[in-house]
Amino acid sequence: MDSPTAVENQTTAEASTAGKLKPNSLGVLGILFFVLSAQAPLTGIAGSVPISVAIGNGPGTPAAYAAAGVITLLFSVGFVAMGRHVVNAGAFYTYIGKGLGRSVGTGSAGIALFAYCAIQAAMYGLYGATVSGLIAHYADADVAWWLCSLVTMVIVQVLGAAGIEMGAKVLAVFVLAEFSILSVFALVTFFKGGGPEGLGLAQSFSPGEALEGAPGVALMFAVASMIGFEATAIYGEEAREPRRTVPRATYLSVALVTGFFAFTSWMLVSAYGASKAPAAAGKALESGDSTAFVFAPIADLFGAWVNDVLPILLATSLFAGILAFHNSANRYLFSLGRDGLLPGALTKINRRHSPGVAGTVQTAVAVLLVVPFALAGKDPVLTLFSWGSGVAVLGIMLLYFLTSASVVVFFRRERLDTRPWNTLIAPGLGALGIVGAIWLVVENFTTLIGGDSGTAIWLELSIPAVMLLGIVGARLKRPAATAADG
């Protein structure tokens, strides 16, 4: 029988963690795997690079990834500086609220939730189509894409409820598999001296080549590949020594993602030859299987078995990304509930100290976003995937800009950190780069979503509409105090 003192200590410990996520459960590598999973490396390479090479700036595509990495790195300097003083699972909206005020902060929370749920739904569309194709190939069975997606939603819900550690371990396996095969291909190609035209360093990274064709399309996809790195701050409450862990994970993730995408895309272009890569990518797009542009040179190097393995890894890549965005979105819901901006029931945590109710709600939202496309008989890739991805890119880029502005305002007012580079210069330069990227996204939005201009306009308008809804909702709710208060 427990002594009164033991019971008393246990009660005190439980009270101290009430309404809180499990502390000290993630280190740098754990957070890093969540971030890299959100980028879905194989999905980004196989899905984006062929389009960028075919209709973007051709062999200059690797330079677009390098430019996107520089913009993101500049942004992350201020992002990390703010994270040293504000630790909250709401990340974006909390940071924005601290500098620009509660109304803008809560409006941005709506955009963040919308963007994360939209990109997760988009990935469910591509994932469902991919898995349905694998089943048809290996089991000779016709299974609808939406059924594959709905079954996976149940699995994601279970893993999310099982806790951060379980999710990190699952993601680690998938991420390592993706990175390994692509990285080995890139390294072998590099040390062999490239393809028929050599490494083609100047053709891929010189300013002249980078600005050829439609560089905006390539930069747009490059920026999209960076989405998810901000999750380093979302897991701050669950990190070990967050003041050190979060900055390290942030800088490491930006560096790894930038280096990986720039280097791998460079070696893909080199494998074909800079002069021949655009035509090869265009042919792959016309065939309806853009992944052939990526899979073919890897198979030529390692053997035909790659054609069986890579489609499976593409499915696991998508699954890892879906799980990562599920975890990010449910922590936003949890944080908004804790701050009184959404129903308090969202703050309920399960035995694993994970946001159980918020996770269930997030899964329900995923169902509501995916099912209408299934009922309407829409192509999951041409509509759900492309539309959801486009909206998410635009929404997240707006959040990046607002966060940069908030960092500058916050530190000018609070003077908690007086380093000019960290709190003014880098965030300011990052904001300018982000504005340029947003302009390019808007200019190329119809191309990005693969739809007509009317659809593009409605999707673009959804971003300010969601922000306005968040602002109005916050003014009506008016909690006594929130983490987003300026």
Automatic annotation (TrEMBL):
- Localization in the cell: Cell membrane
Q: Where are the transmembrane segments?
A: 26-51, 63-83, 104-123, 143-164, 171-193, 213-236, 248-269, 309-329, 356-375, 387-411, 423-442, 454-474
Membrane-protein topology = Multi-pass membrane protein
Task: Please name one Pfam family that this protein belongs to.
Answer: AA_permease_2
Under InterPro entries, the record lists: AA/rel_permease1, APC_superfamily
Q: Which UniProt keywords apply?
A: Cell membrane, Membrane, Transmembrane, Transmembrane helix
What PANTHER family does the database record attribute to this sequence?
AMINO ACID PERMEASE, AMINO ACID TRANSPORTER-RELATED
Tell me what this protein is called.
Answer: Amino acid permease
Task: Look up and give the organism this protein is from.
Answer: Streptomyces graminofaciens
